[in-house]
Specification:
- 60% of the residues lie in helices and 11% in strands.
- The chain has 202 residues and is mostly helical.
- The chain has 2 domains: 38 residues, no CATH class; 152 residues, GntR ligand-binding domain-like (Four Helix Bundle (Hemerythrin (Met), subunit A)).
- Helix 2 packs antiparallel against helix 5.
């Protein structure tokens, strides 16, 4: 502090801010000190915290593109899905429900939305969706469930089930309700800057 002319008050406030943001940890007493904490997740979405390799575009930008594209594709799937498409969605839901690890669950979610994208029967947009999914999976290094995720996981599964049910029955009211709940569940209220922009939450 003396070397750089920084007062103890300024240093303490700086450390407090860094601790609050989980960027450093401070251990008091003999043998203690300041250490750099593990890097925070770049993306916090729904019940998952996600870490990625450095990339351009930023992972949040990839997620924003993915969510906006899925918004349109899911609407198209509501209008165009066949019985076989609905059966494929239900099979994807079985995989989601059987996923106990965070990375496994994230992969199952991506697979589910890939099935919905295929049900839109717009090959060009489906191809764009596959490209985005491939880009996201290629740079993902770690996925972790948030604390107390079990009730949130149950809600997420129910929302996805409701989307499938609304598509199967061509119920527009239930479909809109399920899509809105799906979008709301994605935003991490306590850390919106690391949650992607979505069609319902610009």
């Amino acid at each position: 502090m003396d070397r750089f002319g920084i007062s103890p008050t300024v240093m303490n406030e700086t450390l407090r801010i860094l601790r609050d943001r989980d960027l450093v940890s401070v251990r008091p007493g003999p043998g203690g000190g300041i250490t750099v904490a593990s890097a925070p997740p770049q993306v916090r979405i729904g019940i998952l915290d996600l870490w990625f390799q450095p990339s351009n575009p930023h992972p949040l930008d990839l997620f924003e593109a993915r969510l906006y594209l899925e918004f349109g594709l899911t609407k198209a799937a509501f209008e165009r899905a066949t019985g076989n498409d609905v059966a494929a969605m239900r099979a994807a839901m079985v995989t989601m429900r059987g996923s106990s690890e965070a990375r496994e669950y994230f992969d199952a979610v991506l697979e589910f939305h890939g099935v919905v994208a295929a049900a839109a029967h717009i090959p060009v947009l489906e191809g764009m969706h596959k490209m985005l999914i491939t880009s996201i999976e290629a740079i993902l290094t770690r996925a972790v469930f948030v604390a107390g995720h079990k009730s949130l996981l149950a809600e997420s599964l129910n929302v996805h089930d409701d989307i499938v049910a609304a598509i199967a029955t061509h119920d527009p009211v239930s479909f809109i309700d399920a899509i809105n709940r799906h979008d709301e569940n994605l935003i991490r209220a306590e850390d919106p800057l690391r949650s992607p922009v979505t069609p319902q939450h610009p």
